[in-house]
Specification:
single chain; 330 residues; alpha+beta; 5-stranded mixed sheet; 12 helices; 13 strands
């Protein structure tokens, strides 16, 4: 009986992470949540990583946000990246560089902590943080790291801070003090559980939702909340013509008492757009009103992508269709 229960828990966890059965089962601990929550510095680190992940995507990907699976642990997270191109986009976005004038691009304090045959591990200097980026052979990660370095406009005197010592640079400390200690930062940290929680359940957007394309960004505040309101994550789920939305199934998974997040349907839908454009929108927030998930379902066609002759795009489309068909078959 116990073996059957553990098997069910492992299968359910896979829905949220897309891990293999053995991977999911190996992470289950007696008396512990099936998907553990990050805490402390790791929680804030993952919240910013989620935002950077959304901002870094610039093209179609076979899996939502270009992540094939996630492996959340108590003190770290692993992201299996789908391709070398996507890995380059992610590293180029999160590794910090300095632009003369005081601007730090990327995640301040982040460094590559170690390189292994399976990928790389990043962390934030002086903080108990860890994220492993895997999915490519070691040689590919070396190329991606070199490309990230080459993409820095050194002709304009930018400097790759992530190539420096394993400590915060003066530029990063100054930037952190100026931009990440005020009311906006406190608001973001209060809602960090939501963005970290979404990151740890990222696979839901391709195991439950039959969307061809998923994108997102941090939205502005909306009416109906006090002060700055909750940290608002706008997630667009695009479906090709003829594919039915699975709105309720996704909501059920996100609000599941054992595997989901502490959110429920929001009681209002502020009309930031004309009502007919919002008829397939769903908002979920928490009781304390610190995090808001805005799911926006739509139908579109992408004939321009189908017409591309690049085999890379044809392979992406084929993978998308196979993935969506597998979801619809269940």
């Amino acid at each position: 009986m116990r073996r059957d229960r553990i098997s069910r828990l492992a299968d359910r966890r896979r829905l949220y992470t897309n891990e293999t059965y053995d991977q999911a089962r190996s992470q289950l601990r007696p008396g512990q949540p099936s998907i553990p929550a990050a805490s402390g510095e790791q929680l804030r680190f993952e919240a910013d990583l989620f935002r950077q992940l959304l901002d870094s995507r610039s093209d179609f990907t076979a899996y939502p946000f270009g992540i094939r699976r996630v492996r959340p642990r108590v003190d770290s997270i692993e992201l299996e990246v789908e391709s070398e191109q996507r890995a380059h986009e992610i590293l180029r976005t999160i590794l910090p560089s300095y632009e003369p004038g005081g601007e730090v691009h990327g995640m301040p304090g982040v460094r590559i902590w170690q390189r292994t045959k399976n990928g790389i591990e990043i962390h934030q200097c002086g903080r108990v943080t860890s994220a492993r980026l895997t999915g490519l052979p070691a040689g590919a990660w070396k190329r991606v790291e070199a490309q990230a370095l080459d993409s820095i406009p050194t002709e304009r005197d930018w400097r790759p801070l992530w190539k420096g010592p394993d400590r915060w640079s003066e530029e990063e400390l100054a930037f952190e003090q100026q931009w990440n200690t005020g009311e906006w930062s406190r608001n973001f940290q209060a809602g960090a559980w939501c963005s970290s929680g979404l990151l740890r359940r990222l696979a839901l957007f391709h195991t439950v939702a039959p969307a061809d394309h998923v994108s997102g960004y941090r939205g502005l505040g909306i009416n109906g909340y006090e002060g700055l309101g909750p940290v608002r994550w706008c997630l667009d789920l695009d479906h090709r013509t003829g594919v039915q939305y699975r709105k309720q199934e996704l909501v059920d998974a996100l609000t599941d008492s054992g595997f989901g997040l502490p959110v429920a349907r929001a009681h209002h839908l502020d009309a930031v757009y004309p009502p007919h454009e919002m008829e397939n929108w769903i908002r979920l927030d928490d009781e304390a009103r610190t995090g808001l998930i805005e799911l926006r379902f739509s139908t579109f066609n992408y004939p321009s992508l189908h017409r591309k002759k690049d085999p890379k795009y044809r392979a992406i489309v084929e993978t998308i269709h196979a993935r969506v068909d597998a979801v619809l078959a269940h």
